[in-house]
Amino acid sequence: MLYGKENREEAAYLDPIFGSNSEGCDLPKYKLNQKSVEPRIAYQLVQDELLDEGNARLNLATFCQTYMEPEAEKLMSQTLAKNAIDKSEYPRTAELENRCVNMIADLWHAQADEKFIGTSTIGSSEACMLGGMAMKFAWRKRAEKLGVDINARKPNLVISSGYQVCWEKFCVYWDVELREVPLDSKHLSLNLDHVMDYVDEYTIGIVGILGITYTGRYDNIAELNEIVEEHNRNTPHKVYIHVDAASGGLYAPFVEPELIWDFQLNNVVSINASGHKYGLVYPGVGWVLWRDQKFLPEELVFKVSYLGGELPTMAINFSHSAAQLIGQYYNFVRYGFEGYQEIHQKTHKVAQYLADAIAACDRFELINDGSHLPIVCYKLKDPNAQEWTLYDLADRLLMKGWQVPAYPLPKNLDQQVIQRLVIRADFGMNMACDYVQDMQAAIHDLDRAHLVYHEKKTIKTYGFTH
Fold first, then answer.
1. Burial 220-248 (b: 16+ CB within 10 A, else e)
2. 21-26-29-31 Cα dihedral, nearest 10 degrees
3. Is 313 helix (H, G, I), strand (E, B) or coil?
């Protein structure tokens, strides 16, 4: 087709993006533009705003999934408009959520003589909130029956000081005392020798962590269960366990199926996990399950209209896209048990390779070797043996794109700075070899660099927090 000078509408649309008026002025930041912008130009403007951010695939700080298959992405993009809370409008989506809960319950050894119940959440933070609320409400009922004055003191929650910040938020939001069992150099997970020292008639529950975010270590849930069992035999003030399995809940069943940590243990009454960590879904989905309906107080369950009847629901967040939980179901269908196992075992091998490579370097001492979760943590053997710190090493690695956190350990150990590598499914052996080479080059360069003196007495988190 031929065009003449009257065809200006088409010509304007074909004007070059970088020659447009919108590219010639500052992007609107705190006040709306007066006029609209062409979609292709708006896309380019926003995309360019994100150019100087890190590459998610090179982010070794995050546990969150950074890759999904194109088919999964297509399916999720097609279902972004579905509101997960609208059960009657999207009954098939509700059924997919139900199937996921059943599959996870099977992985966590839900008992045949009990009636498990569970739900999806936005992530493990919401799941922890729901698990904590159930513990508090259930404790209140038990305490009132035993004649405890529930208004005399705050109820309390017992957890190791390696907790994720969502538990601190829970305790603030729901007026619960957070009782931290300190980590120390001999106990980098829950100290079982002293955990019961923190328990009394006002304890709503004990949280065991299957994958501490600081180090990747597992609390010994089976031994904790034995201690709680003995406690419950000798007192009417019973206490139960919630397992925060944000990281390990969809990893351990495939890599360490012999590890006993879940509903096989009598006193584990609820478990949460992140679907967007080792469930291999993009950020935005978590799960919480109770071993039996009796551990979820009825007043926390609400009824919504569903296919002419009622459906029980429990959530803090309300309207949100169903895309992530549909992505979770896709992964369950796509991979099956053996697929998840193959992916996680590969990830495990990569973590062990990195741990061996770092241990072989005489500068570092391993804190965690990836024997459970594929998390590798290490510290400098002698911080005074070189002029640089782990913060300097993190900065140097960032020059190659690697985002590697350096941070102090929790209270009692907060003078000890460590570095952590989180190995995910999309981090293969080739990338691991590249990382080792870049790490060796960074150390070589730091040894020969002129560095600004660091005040040894001051511990700085450099923006990385848990």
1. ebeebbebbeebeeeeebebbbbbbbbbb
2. -60
3. strand
In DSSP terms, 301 is beta-bridged to none
Beta carbons within 10 angstroms of residue 216's beta carbon: 28
| Dist. CA 176–CA 274, nearest whole Å | 24
Helix (H), strand (E), coil (C) string for 321-349: ECHHHHHHHHHHHHHHHHHHHHHHHHHHH
Q: CA dihedral in degrees (446, 449, 450, 452; nearest 10)?
A: -30
Long-range contacts of 30-36, Cβ-Cβ distance < 8 Å, separation of 24 or more: none
Whole-angstrom Cα distance, residue 382 to residue 350?
Answer: 27
Confirm if 161 and 203 have CB atoms less than 8 A apart. Answer: no
What's the CA gap between 80 and 106, in Å, rounded? 28
Backbone angles phi, psi at 6, to 5 degrees: -80, -15
Cβ proximity of 164 and 206 under 8 Å? no
* pLDDT at residue 462 greater than cutoff 50: no
Q: Is the pLDDT of residue 341 over 80?
A: yes
Which residue carries 């990893």 as its tokens? Answer: 251
DSSP state letter for 217? P
Q: Using 50, 70 and 90 to split pLDDT, how confident is the model at 382?
A: very high
Between 459 and 363, whose confidence is greater?
363
pLDDT value at position 267? Answer: 98
What integer is the mean pLDDT of 294-312? 80
User: Nearest CA to 132 among 270, 293, 287?
Assistant: 270
Give residue 122's region: left, alpha or beta (phi > 0; psi -120 to 50): alpha
- 163 phi, psi to nearest 5 deg: -65, 155
Distance of alpha carbon 167 from alpha carbon 287, whole angstroms: 16
This prediction's pTM: 0.92
DSSP states of 4-47: -TT-HHHHHHTS-GGGSSGGGSPPP-SS--SS---HHHHHHHHH
Burial track 320-345 (b if 16+ CB lie within 10 A, e otherwise): bbbbbbbbbbbbbeebeeeebeebbe
Contact 348, 363 (CB under 8 A): no
Contact criterion met (CB below 8 Å) for 83 and 319: yes
